[in-house]
Amino acid sequence: MQFAIHQTKLESLSKLIEKLAKTATKLKVEAPEAIVRGVQIWPAISTPSGYLVKPQQTKTIVEFLGVSPKLEGGWEFLATLEHLGDTNVVRAIPGVTLPEAFQTSKPFCDHCQKIRGRKETFVVKSEAGEIKQVGRACLKDYLGHKSLEQIGWLHTLIAEIREFNDDEGSSHIPNQIGPIEMLIHAVAVIEAFGFFGREAAAKCDQLPTSDRVLANIWGLNETDKVQLTEAHLAKAEEVFAWIGTLSSDSQYNHNLKATALHKFAVGHRDAGLLTSAVFSYQKAMGQLAERKAKADQSKHFGTIGNRETITLTVTKEMNVETAYGILWIFIMTDQAGNVAKWATGSKALESGATYEMKATIKAHTDWKGIAQTELARCKVIKQLQQERVAS
Fold first, then answer.
1. 78, 72, 164, 206 alpha-carbon torsion, rounded to 10°
2. 183 within 8 A of 213, measured Cβ to Cβ
3. Of 106, 172, 187, 205, whose CB is crowded by the most CB atoms within 10 A?
4. Distance CA 213, CA 201 (A)
């Protein structure tokens, strides 16, 4: 887990790490370790009238290791569930994916066996693989084991570390903004500045897009303020409708749907997720448009069973491991844009190269609505050119 820590907070953070290390020793838990990954300059933020809200800040990028250790007794902290009626936002430790049942589980505690009006419950896992959902009040004495006191301490540890992260909360953040309103600002900001996730932004000295969106909502930066238009609203409504069509086959999709469709008001914790939704929508629409263009262009060619001489360019290569070894799959197109596929046991072709070859027309199939001619027994007559293409 990485956080941007203001320079003035480093000394206090160091003291916190020392305190947590002592507590970890007492509870027989691996102490968290802080590793400095670099320094980043964050620009000043001002109101439209020129009032300086935040001066330029120098922040240290700190990565914390050991924030999800195995606990005495074999228990491990996995996630916090934020309950929103019939669905939940799953805030899992990085690298953890929970069973889908937790996406809609009630605010139930496996210790006291009661459903209460809990806003949050916590998911833990035993060394034997048993997963439990417990309420906040039961963390300390769950099953009477000291290990659950450790779990309570672990949750506190993560909360305390987050307090040092400047991007995890602000007194300026409004609490009553609807999901669509945040999406409108996200659409406008991405249109003006592009999309940068937190990691990508750190690498190229940019502000993370979610931070720009929040600043735009607050009206804190006159220079970079993006004015909203009816077109931004229309696009935001498209994104919102698209979110509703997503399946919950991934934790990202589920959390996105839960946040957008089940929260009356969203805050700073939701900015990154909703902002990324706009980028994901644009990417999905681009892929859809590309597939539609290919579908409109590609036609089946050749006569099934015939051996024919054809000229094809390799646009994509993939390989999968089978019981019989590696299977190479080559996707190719001819000059008319017709798509062909060849599966073979050897890496016979190079991506981006154009070949004149003899091949047997094996079948006429469709892939996601695109007409695709499957080939067999391809034999290269000659290679015509080599031009790298994106795979």
1. -50
2. no
3. 187
4. 14
